[in-house]
Predict the structure.
Amino acid sequence: MYVDVLSSAVGVLPSDLSGGALLDWTRSRRTDMHRVISTNTGPSFALLVAEVAFDRALLKLCEMHDIASDPANFLHPAEERARLETELTIKGIDLAEERPRFEDD
């Protein structure tokens, strides 16, 4: 079911997100997802929304950096997120970094 939800949401990113803006967007969505996970007090749909928001941004960022990714690979979302984040790290992109950028690279 998660793959279907993510597949439906992938194309729903603002079209002007690229470069530094896309990286900032992805980092923000990752922070939001981890905040929801750590508080774990809200309804389960809040976690689903946060995960989908991060994963669709992550997929777009990976596409921009020529990293093979596909919503169909999210049968085990945590594992696929870890794989993609590792691939980005190999390319020098640290999603855990919190500094605001807001400029295009």
Observations:
- Confidence is low (pLDDT under 50) at residues 100-105.
- The helical segments are 2-9, 19-39, 44-64, 77-90.
- The two ends are 35 Å apart (CA to CA).
- The chain has one domain: 2-8+16-90.
